[in-house]
Sequence to fold (369 residues):
Amino acid sequence: MTDLPAGAPAGFMDREIRSGEGWSERLGDALATCRVFVPLLSPRYFANETCGKEWYAFEQRAIHQRARSNQPADAIVPALWAPVPPSQLPSVAMRLQFNHHDFGERYASDGLHGLIKLRIFAEEYERAVYELAKRIVRVADSVRVDTGRPVDYRQAPSAFGSPGSRGGGLRPMRITVVAPTRHDLPEGRSPECYGDTPEEWSPYSPDASRPLAYVAEELVRSLNYQAVITSFDEDRHDGTVPPSAPEILLVDRWALRDEDRRRRLAAFDAENRPWVTVVVPWNHRDPQSGAAEAELTELLVAVMPRAMRRASAFVRAAARGVATVEAFGQVLPQVVEVAAHQFLRHAQVNPPTQVLRDRTFLLPDRDAP
Fold:
C-alpha cells in the first residue's frame, strides 16, 4: 500500500531484539525516526516497563511536534492483540481516539490473537489486518512527526506509570504558571510571548508557538498523571489547608518586576511547601531576557529562597533556566518525580479538627488490660 520499492522494509518490529539485550541502538534509532507507532495491546503489554518506555519515547516526539507547530501530531495506531480490561489501561491508552469496532466486531471482542487461534475466523482476521494496514499508511501520509534524538532508555520513565498507578483514577499533578499577561507587562518587555491569561505564556516563541502550560500538561499526562493548570494570580489555597496534589511552578522571571506578585510569592515561599518544585523556562535567544537575566535571577532567589534552594538541590537544570522546549521536555520528568516524592513524604492529609461538645468519656483504669 506504500510507494516503497519491492522488498524494502516498511517498518521495524522489536521482536528482533533478544530477551535481556535491553535497549539497543537500533531500537532507539527506530523510535526516533519512525512515522507511525503501532503498539500491540494486551494485558502483558501494559505490565511491561520496557513497552512503557517505548511508548514514552515516541510520545515525546509528538509532544515536541505539537509544541513547535501547535498542530495535531497523533501518530499512534494501536493494534488489539488481546482484550484489555479497562482497569488495566493506563491513561495514555485511554486517551487514544480509536474505535476497534471499525476493524470488525470479532476483532474488537477477541483481538488478533483470538482470530488467529480459530480457523473459522480467518476472514475476520484478514479484514482486521487489512484495515489496520490502511490506517497505518493513512496516518503516515497525513501526520507529520519530525525525527528526534534517540532517548537514553536507561533514564527514560514508563508512560504506563508504576503498577499501582494503573486504573482506579489518575494521580493529580498541579501546574501553576507565574507570568504576566500582555496587558500587564513590565517596562521593557515586548508582548510577543504573552497572551490574555498567564496560561498563554510561550517563552520559546517563535520556535515553539504552543503555550508552555499545555506542553507541560501533555508531558505530565505522558507520565500517567492528570494535570491541572492554574495561574498563580488566581486565588490560592490558604496555607492551613492540606494540599491536594504535588505542584510544578513555572516561573517567568519577568513576573517579578511586579511588586504585588513579589509579595505574594514571598509569602507563598515562606509557607515551606517541599512538594512545590520550581521550573524556570528562560529563552537565551531572547535579547530582552538576555539583557535582564542577571538582575531577574538575583530577584527570584531573593523572593523565593527556599523554593530555589530545593530546585537547585533536586533538579539544578530546572532552577538555573531551561533554554529550549526540548530541554524542558528532558527536565520535566525529573521534576515530576521529585514533586510526587516530596508530596508523599511531606504533604500528609490531616483529618479535620472535630469539636466535641456535651460528651462524657469514661477512661479505663491505667492498669486494666
About this structure: The chain has twelve helices and six strands.
